[in-house]
């Protein structure tokens, strides 16, 4: 069942001592500034944090912000150009506003971004823990951004390093080589760099961001064929992963992490992860030493929905106690 998707008049915003108020804006001005609006009624419960959270790369991600009023802001590079999207749930409906050359594209893709193409009813819990989490999280839907590079590049940065190191690299590189996000963004937001801008990042700037030559080289190979990789967003997840893995340096872990976000792939389970097999093994079988093979065997009853099952297991909070130190940081920027 698809949600309803209807246009709303554009507005401008005027700040007063008492706060911010909405004022109707002329249509011509709206077209000039890109302040377009839409209202979308989802087909069921929707939790913005759960749906859009996977697109955020750390609390200081310059492409993603949340505000105290519950709004989520996203700055991204669309096929039509840079754009900023603000979404908020109000009385069961989603109010969205977008700015920039990519505004229209972002609003057209809004239902898919919010999991409209996802089918949570196809999921049948097979374990008590999974069933309990499934009941507690009715607003979980799998996002489909329709954009490959914005998920591929940070996933490459996350290869074989701590998440803090990867988030730092993404933050530094996007702020330095990206561009200011269009619209009245909260705080400082940026759109990720164009493929050519990534290609022109000097070797010493990769080094300052803590990115080793292997990961930098993988990103450089990917941006050279960015257009072909972006086509993967319209493919079936298996075919999309196969296309991504044609790039040296991109393996099953990175391709799965990408298509989970770009294609909304419910079965793209992440293999090769340092922690996930142990978490899944512990949650479903009490086996904290499970490897990829054991994890896949445990998730076999969820074939077709293994990524959703893994998300629910992670959301359950049932994780084994840490028995060893965290992965050590390897900050090459200070070498």
Automatic annotation (TrEMBL):
InterPro entries recorded for this chain? Alkylbase_DNA_Glycosylase/TA, DNA_glycosylase
Q: Does the keyword Cell inner membrane apply?
A: no
Keyword NAD among record annotations? no
Positions of the UniProt region annotated as Disordered: 1-20, 25-45
| UniProt keyword terms in alphabetical order | DNA damage, DNA repair
Going by the entry's taxonomy, the superkingdom of the source organism is recorded as Bacteria
What's the protein here called?
DNA-3-methyladenine glycosylase 2 family protein
Which organism encodes this protein? Streptomyces formicae
Q: What is the lineage of its organism?
A: Bacteria, Bacillati, Actinomycetota, Actinomycetes, Kitasatosporales
């Amino acid at each position: 069942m698809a949600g309803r998707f209807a246009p709303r008049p554009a507005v401008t915003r005027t700040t007063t001592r008492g706060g911010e108020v909405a004022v109707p804006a002329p249509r011509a001005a709206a077209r000039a500034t890109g302040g377009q609006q839409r209202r979308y009624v989802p087909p069921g419960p929707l939790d913005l944090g759960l749906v859009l959270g996977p697109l955020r790369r750390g609390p200081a991600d310059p492409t993603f912000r949340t505000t105290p009023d519950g709004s989520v802001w996203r700055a991204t590079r669309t096929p039509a150009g840079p754009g900023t999207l603000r979404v908020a749930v109000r009385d069961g409906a989603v109010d969205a506003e977008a700015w920039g050359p990519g505004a229209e594209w972002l609003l057209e893709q809004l239902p898919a971004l919010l999991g409209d193409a996802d089918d949570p009813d196809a999921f049948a819990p097979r374990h008590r823990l999974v069933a309990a989490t499934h009941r507690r999280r009715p607003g979980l839907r799998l996002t489909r951004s329709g954009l490959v590079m914005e998920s591929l590049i940070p996933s490459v940065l996350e290869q074989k390093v701590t998440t803090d190191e990867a988030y730092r690299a993404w933050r530094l590189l996007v702020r330095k080589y990206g561009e200011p996000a269009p619209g009245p963004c909260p705080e400082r937001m940026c759109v990720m760099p164009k493929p050519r801008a990534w290609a022109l990042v000097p070797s010493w700037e990769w080094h300052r961001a803590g990115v080793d030559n292997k990961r930098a080289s993988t990103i450089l190979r990917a941006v050279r064929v960015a257009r072909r990789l972006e086509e993967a967003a319209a493919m079936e997840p298996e075919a999309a992963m196969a296309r991504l893995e044609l790039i040296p340096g991109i393996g099953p872990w990175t391709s799965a992490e990408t298509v989970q976000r770009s294609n909304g792939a419910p079965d793209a389970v992440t293999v090769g992860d340092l922690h996930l097999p142990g978490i899944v093994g512990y949650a479903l079988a009490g086996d904290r030493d499970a490897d990829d093979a054991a994890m896949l065997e445990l998730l076999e009853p969820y074939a077709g929905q293994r990524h959703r099952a893994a998300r629910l297991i992670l959301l359950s909070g049932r994780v084994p106690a840490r028995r060893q130190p965290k992965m050590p940081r390897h900050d090459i920027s200070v070498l």
